[in-house]
Every structure is written in structure tokens, then in C-alpha cells.
Write a structure and sequence with these properties.
It is a single chain. It contains eleven helices and 18 strands. By secondary structure, the protein is of the alpha+beta class. It is globular, with a radius of gyration of 26 Å.
């Protein structure tokens, strides 16, 4: 478990702004208590709390229920199965978990909430009723599990993550909770994250909307729905988990896979996420920066976790009230407070110790028709293509063994960039997804689709 890293301590003004934000949140949200934490640069740099109880305040080791942030933990388990080659995101569920009645939906669609499944279970409100009332998957899904055709739109589905938890159990041959503990919690040192509450933990409360009174919420074991919302955790554990979601950990998932999880896999659904949903991660924008993380709620608790990879900042907010305090909004605000007040220092520029002559040969200006672009070689060995002086399609490319370059981002993600050479070995043009890039606008010496007017460039008259 991390302790506060004094070597990267925030400025006093930043710390005060963070304290003020959660104080306002607790007061205006009328929450019995709220606890928060911020990470930056791979370390826990701030913790704070506010409470309605005199002389007592929670700290980073007190458990709160985290609701749907549990889904992100479940998604990590599924991505581990994918990375091990035990399943593919395009596999239909029936291939690994037969007989559910929803077997046509794919693993990737379940992760991205685009499988067309209903948002909730049939029957009584599952969050306030015992899981024993839904002993089988048929009880979770009902007779008509689909409300939309799979793959057509994003529609948040709690039963979908029950199916993913059951998928993990089917492939691993062990209970979801046991697999989670052995493959994620223990490797990452999340000793205070568990399926059942462990002291010290907060009690969940319902606060009356029109009077300053409250009553306890029932505490239910969610049974089969556990992978969708069962977990309890602390701000310190979730801060460590947030850092993992930004940087990866080869003991659990590599950096490439956690980055894939934070890439939009489904379009946005109105009222949920502005930029859509990744693979177990909500995506949104706050203060002009892109955030990945998840919100969570269960009766008596609200939670929010956001990461900004560009700023290397993450924030977690937990409160023990059913509604009123917008934990996810507050967490996003905490990220913004730190990132705006203390912007990240860029890494120092360093030249290559070696640069491949072939890559250098490709650098410089190129033209797609009359649109000017520049191709440059970055210090990490990637090629970066972007327009000059105008908006347009930008992308990064990674060298492949066959001498081509694979698109990593933007419009050209997954596409191949190829340098086409003349008989003498010099580069004639670049071929990118059928587009021809030339050294001069509409170079007559290059195979420009449709040809080039033989009279060339000229004025009027």
C-alpha cells in the first residue's frame, strides 16, 4: 500500500484548492462523509476528507462501496484472458459460456456495453435485494435479454457484466472473486479491496431530499451481479489501481492493453459519456482534457475515479450517501485543479543515439494532392504525420519488419504506410490507405490517381 510521497508534494495553494473542493462537495451534497485522493507522477500526492461527525474523519484506508467501478476490475480480468490467447474480443459468448440465451453477443460488445442487453435485471431492484433471489443467469437476464440488436448502439448493461464475470469463472474454472484476488488485487498490492466489507468501513446512508435527516441503507450481497458492482475499496487502493490503468503493470496487464481499454469502443449514449465507452472504462472530457475512468453507485454510496494520461494525474472520490454528491464530477474537478495549477513538465528532449537512414529519408514535407503535410521521426522511433497550418488527419506510425509502417492512431490507425521506390532505389511517393503522398503537389513523376494535367500549374488568362 502506498504512503503519501513527500518528494512530489503539491504546492500549498493546490492542496488548499483540493480541500476546498471536497468541503464544498460534502456540504452541498449533504454527505455524511467524503474521502478523496490524488495521484501524480506515479505516486499518491494528496489525501483529504470531510465528515459530519465531530472529531472523526475517514482516511485513505477506510472502505467504501465502489459500485460500478467493480466493472473495470472485471474488464481487467477479461482482457487478461484475451492477452493469454484464451479468448478473442470477437468471440461470441456462446463459444465460452454456452446456454445463456444471449450467446450471440460478443465478448467485446459486452465490455463496451454495445451488446444490446437490457440495462437492469427483471424483477425487483437488484441493488437493494439479495443476490440469492437471482440464483441463475436466467434470473439475471430474463426471458427477453435483448432490447437492441447486438452491436448497433451503446446501451449500459449491468447484466452484461454479470455475463462477463460468469465468463471469467467458466474459463478459469474458479469463482470470480478468487480470480480477482489472485490475478489483480494481490499483484497490485490492493489489500483493502474486497467483495465483502472489512473494518474499518463506512456505513451507507440515505439522506432525505427535503430534510436534514437520514437512515441506513440495506447492505446486500449481490450474488451473480457481483462483477457489476459488489466491490468495497479505499481511496489509497483505488489510487494505485488508477495508476495501473494509466501505465499498466506486466504482472497484470501491459501498457498497450490498458491503453486499448481507454480507447473508445462504442459511441456515446446521451447522458452517460461524451466520448463513449472503452473496454470497461468510461471516457469523457473535463476542462478540455480527456479523462478515462468510471463512476459508481449503490444504495448508500457514490464513487468516482478518473485518470488523465496526458497530465499523469488521477483522482478518486468516495462518499457514503445514496445521492446528492456527484462523486465523478468532483473527481474530475480534482484532476483539473492539479493539472491546471501545476502543469506537467515535458520530458527533456533527447536526440537519437542512432537513426535509421531509411526513416530519415522519409522525413520532411509531403503533399496529399494540394494539402501540405510533414512527416517527422520522433525520438521513440515512430513516424508522425500531420497537416501543415490547417486541421486535418494526423497519425503516428510504428516500423514493421517488412519495411512498412503501421498506423497507431487517428484516421490511419491500423492502416499501412509504404514508401514506393523507383528502380534506382529513391523514394517516388508514399502510399497510405490508397492515398498517394508526393514530394511536390501533384508531382507529375508520381502515379497520382486520375493523372496530372500535362500543362501543369498556370495562372488565369
Amino acid at each position: 500500500m502506498d504512503a503519501l510521497d513527500e518528494d512530489v508534494e503539491l504546492l500549498p495553494s493546490t492542496r488548499r484548492a483540493l480541500r476546498h473542493r471536497i468541503a464544498v462537495a460534502q456540504s452541498e451534497g449533504r454527505a455524511p462523509s467524503v474521502v478523496a485522493a490524488v495521484s501524480r507522477g506515479g505516486a499518491l500526492v494528496w489525501e483529504g476528507s470531510r465528515t459530519s461527525v465531530e472529531g472523526h474523519g475517514p482516511d485513505g484506508s477506510v472502505q467504501y462501496r465502489i459500485g460500478s467501478i467493480s466493472k473495470t476490475f472485471t474488464a481487467v480480468l477479461v482482457m487478461r484472458l484475451r492477452d493469454e490467447g484464451l479468448l478473442a474480443l470477437g468471440d461470441p459468448l456462446e463459444k465460452h459460456l454456452p446456454g445463456t440465451g444471449a450467446g450471440e453477443v460478443t465478448v467485446g460488445q459486452l465490455l463496451a456495453h454495445s451488446g444490446g442487453l437490457a440495462a437492469e435485471t427483471p424483477g425487483e431492484w437488484w441493488e437493494r435485494t439479495p443476490g440469492s433471489s437471482r440464483p441463475e443467469l436466467a434470473d439475471v437476464l430474463g426471458g427477453q435479454p435483448f432490447v437492441f440488436e447486438p452491436g448497433r448502439r451503446h446501451h449500459y448493461s449491468n447484466p452484461g457484466y454479470t455475463l462477463l464475470g460468469s465468463l471469467v469463472e467458466a474459463v478459469r474454472g474458479r469463482p470470480w472473486e478468487e480470480v480477482l484476488r489472485e490475478e489483480v488485487l494481490e499483484p497490485l498490492g490492493l489489500e483493502r479491496t474486497s467483495a465483502q466489507p472489512q473494518a474499518p468501513h463506512a456505513g451507507g446512508w440515505a439522506v432525505h431530499p427535503w430534510a436534514d435527516v437520514m437512515m441506513p441503507e440495506p447492505l446486500q450481497d449481490l450474488g451473480l451481479m457481483a462483477p457489476a458492482g459488489q466491490l468495497w475499496s479505499t481511496t489509497r487502493d483505488l489510487s494505485a489501481f488508477a495508476r495501473f490503468l494509466m501505465h499498466g503493470d506486466e504482472r497484470v496487464l501491459g501498457a498497450g492493453t490498458v491503453r486499448e481499454m481507454a480507447t473508445s469502443a462504442a459511441p456515446p449514449e446521451r447522458g452517460l459519456a461524451e466520448f463513449g465507452y472503452g473496454l470497461g472504462l468510461q471516457l469523457t472530457e473535463s476542462r478540455g482534457r480527456r479523462l478515462a475512468g468510471h463512476s459508481g453507485s449503490l444504495p448508500g454510496f457514490v464513487a468516482g475515479l478518473w485518470t488523465s494520461e496526458a497530465d499523469d494525474v488521477a483522482a478518486v472520490v468516495l462518499a457514503n450517501c445514496t445521492s446528492g454528491l456527484p462523486a465523478a464530477t468532483v473527481a474530475a474537478d480534482l484532476v483539473g485543479i492539479v493539472a491546471d495549477a501545476e502543469p506537467r513538465f515535458p520530458a527533456p528532449w533527447k536526440p537519437f543515439t542512432e537513426a535509421e537512414p531509411v526513416a530519415l529519408e522519409l522525413c520532411g514535407p509531403w503533399y496529399w494532392g494540394t494539402a501540405a503535410h510533414v512527416l517527422r521521426l520522433a525520438s521513440d522511433g515512430r513516424l508522425e504525420l500531420g497537416p501543415v497550418g490547417a486541421p486535418g488527419r494526423s497519425a503516428a506510425f510504428r516500423a514493421q519488419p517488412d519495411g512498412t509502417w503501421l498506423g497507431l492512431s487517428g484516421y490511419y490507425a491500423g492502416e499501412t504506410l509504404r514508401a514506393v521506390r523507383r528502380p534506382d532505389g529513391t523514394v517516388s511517393h508514399l502510399d497510405l490507405a490508397s492515398f498517394v503522398f508526393t514530394r511536390e503537389p501533384y508531382d507529375p513523376q508520381a502515379p497520382v490517381p486520375g493523372g496530372v494535367d500535362p500543362e501543369g500549374w498556370r495562372g488565369i488568362g
